[in-house]
């Protein structure tokens, strides 16, 4: 089977998963990361059943990665701890980010006899991308070329400027997040443990009375750690961090003061913090209808940074990778036309769902105004729009990106009007390793 040379910029969840997916689809992958591959910060991330299922299909091992299944999500009054709502976890899992990063990095090198491992290059900072020629320029003056370039360089990426032809930086939001990791062993006799961390697998969302803040808690790292995220999105909390900054300092004292606004027993958790991580100002990107141009596709936060109220950023980074892995599988021909129509199909499939998810992610799940989804109505068919929390979780958790891509690929191939379907547009057929133009750039 002919294969593509694929170059990926950025080694976060989006870049690493795309690398594994494209390598599994039979392509030759090189991934360039600005820093080290072991630099992930010690917080946690929750992934839905379809993301986890897709990662498992790539060899992801839930035991090795110490995944913790989320059995249910309980919404509590943060002051009284009264139960307001409870929803099933639906097969979601939570992971300690360093565990996830380690597992994904490991999988880039796991190959069968027919595959080549991904080439991972650390401390390689990309400065510019030429999407038409398929060339990536590095800060040290060197360059490299490929058939397909995947920009996965995070929220501050400039790759979408290249796609859209205008500057479109991510925008700072009013929402901040303080992430806290608590070792469960230290909590045994703590009142907090009796309330929040007594049943492994229970996730809780405690709403501050009056709104504007809530505390999200769930397990990770083989149920050894409890992950807490304090979200503040009320105007009173904005000055805590300068508007133009992504991160701000936070101290145990700051966390303690904020926790005092919740049930007193929750505040006692501050005595057991493993680490006080920086305060994050969350950034967002506006919904768009395309993420591709020429040989370039932009994925993950670089393409569609969103607020993390619904925990969908990493899930969508994995869906991006799954879509690319599916749409670029079984290629009988490698040509510019072939890459082009597959990327167009990628845009058609990904843009509506990503855009709707970005909009729905603007408010916490307990504040959704179901009847006011006018913006979402412009994107999704009426029947698909979630009408309550149960529906929303179902919409987020049950969508099967791989099946969607397979069906759309079949429709596309089966349409005789499409004269650039696979195997038909082979005007510049070539084997893996790039065009003469690409090879020249590689030598330069
Ligand atoms: C508080 C919080 C909680 C969250 N919780 C969840 C959750 O529960 N579930 C969920 O799905 N999502 C969650 N998210 C969102 C999720 O973390 C992100 O969407 C996801 O990590 C984005 O991954 P990425 O690979 O696109 O970007 P990143 O992780 O930012 O990776 C980008 C990589 O590119 C590299 N890079 C940057 N510039 C260059 C360059 N010029 N050259 C080469 N490399 C470069 C960077 O060093 C980095 O390694 C949360 C986010 C926050 C802030």
From TrEMBL:
One of its GO terms (molecular function) is monooxygenase activity. It holds the Pfam family FAD_binding_3. InterPro entries: FAD-bd, FAD-dep_Monooxygenase_BioMet, FAD/NAD-bd_sf. Residues 413-444 are annotated as: Disordered. Residues 416-427 have a biased composition (Polar residues). Residues 5-356 form the FAD-binding domain. Keywords: FAD, Flavoprotein, Monooxygenase, Oxidoreductase. Belongs to the paxM FAD-dependent monooxygenase family. This is Putative salicylate.
